[in-house]
């Protein structure tokens, strides 16, 4: 059945799919299916890596059961459609937390593996994939493989960060982290320039498990890179009388906002207000984990403020501060503002994933309302700066990188290719591999 | 700790309820058709905190087995505090129109087998002078519509049956809760591509059902906005209603 209602989080590009909802592991009989397949969980990838235009999406949200939990070791085995939100709801009251979490908890375990997601603790703990002990992978030849560092190691390393191209993950076993409390001791520090970022970051990385910075991208000249630096650790105990509550977001964006909402003026006002909200150079507070890790999850469908035309996310990792300066200069001059500019350093801990995005260096994430050609041209200029410095772009946030850019970003690509299931594909994959969609559909 | 038996335990709505009960450390007995899937559900509920989960695979269309199934659940749990009857099939109305035997089968599963189970549960609880029986009916039972009247008729029968039981069991201290969900985003409705704002998430429906059982409500619409909607639908005079394409 054609299903036009599925979109990625950036709502660009648009795609049409057949959909096959999976509610049980025994339904994953892939050899019986026709056409090109791709697993799709919460659709929180921004661009087209979670889309499969003209093909079939295997909807995994119905695979949301827990299989085993060892309270002493914190090892959880669950189906691949379980969301990180569901894990938190289960694990937090038992004294555990996610080992790594991205900026939204509304992603599935399968999606977290396929994108080898990272979070504010990358410098301390690495990516999500480092905590995946094993998983079951179903391929279109009808085989089911248990993949771990010991067993089917090639499939294990290809699937972590493998963008769903190696088959369907049905369950996974992950190592949770025991934490003293679900509260975070957070410090926020004002940065007046990019130099401040690097100074504060150097001071913070040893003693703070979670670090990230928000940048006012419209600040220029001497103020370039000004913003707020956040660092946090799990609080040694919960503040007396305070509890964590679970539930759905209370606020929702009920409709697509008209285009003027994200005009240059509103973005400028937001950035100015956000920067100046904090007057003191340092603020310290003990807060629940939700606002620390998931400030945007409080508003359901926040992507709709970008209207029908959608948004383009862009995230790179580069090794040198000079390239960060150059990128910020280009962006601030272009005046195509961005609410959510995030700067962080990645650490040296290696992921098992062949196509894992994080690597030692500085990562910068930006978002832009999709204004058409002008936005695409701007992003191409940013790509060129990344390419020049030997950096990489993040597929989960991409809707437009070139095939060359993809190859430059992932030197382990040749090792990965043999593990791609011939019947699995995505809009992203056909784009960066320059596959003629018609030809592939005919041979499939 | 409550002792709870769930019929149709692999349905999305039943699973959502059972997860809440498991989190409260209630003991559960599950009945459904598919042993492998029951095992998956039982495993999930154990991880979530149910001290005891047993299951039995049987097709509930087989009425002869009902007495034995209720007996087994009663035995395994050491008494039944809550019974949730949640099995059912939606069926494609167009197919049911062509193949009358399919329509009869739909009425058999959705009404006859549910009524049979309710009767066995009622007799047991009446004797014990206590307990709660919850049954999943549907807003579709509030009025027959051309798009869905076989299913609707079975659910209408079920609602009437439950209402009669409630009346009968009132003096024995047994509650009967009739649950009327609207559209729920489950595998049963997976073929409906465009999910509008009327579709509820099974978790939200599960929370509402568990709350209704806790409070021993009589008839609940889930989500609650269906009550006024169905009031309007029921109020339309038949001579107008018959012309509508609903």
Describe the structure.
The complex is a heterodimer of chains A (444) and B (246). Chain A contains 13 helices and 21 strands. By secondary structure, chain A is of the alpha+beta class. Chain A has a domain of 226 residues: Alpha-Beta Plaits (2-Layer Sandwich). Chain A is globular, with a radius of gyration of 21 Å. Chain B has one domain: 3-Layer(aba) Sandwich (Rossmann fold). Chain B has 9 helices and 7 strands. Chain B is globular and about 55 Å long.
Name its key features.
heterodimer, A: 444 residues, alpha+beta, Alpha-Beta Plaits, 8-stranded antiparallel beta sheet, 13 helices, B: 246 residues, alpha/beta, Rossmann fold, 9 helices
SSE layout and pairing:
The complex is a heterodimer of chains A (444) and B (246).
Chain A: E1 2-3, E2 17-21, E3 37-40, E4 56-59, E5 66-70, E6 75-79, H1 84-91, E7 96-97, H2 109-114, H3 122-125, E8 132-138, E9 144-147, H4 153-159, E10 168-175, E11 177-178, E12 183-191, H5 194-204, E13 210-215, E14 227-234, E15 251-252, H6 264-277, E16 282-288, H7 289-293, E17 299-300, E18 311-318, H8 321-334, E19 342-346, E20 361-369, H9 373-388, E21 392-393, H10 403-409, H11 413-416, H12 427-432, H13 437-443
Chain B: E1 3-7, H1 12-23, E2 27-32, H2 35-47, E3 53-57, H3 66-77, E4 82-85, H4 93-98, H5 100-128, E5 131-136, H6 149-169, E6 174-181, H7 202-214, E7 219-222, H8 226-235, H9 238-241
Parallel strand pairs in B: 1-2, 1-4, 2-3, 4-5, 5-6, 6-7
Helix pairs in contact in B: 1-2, 1-7, 5-6
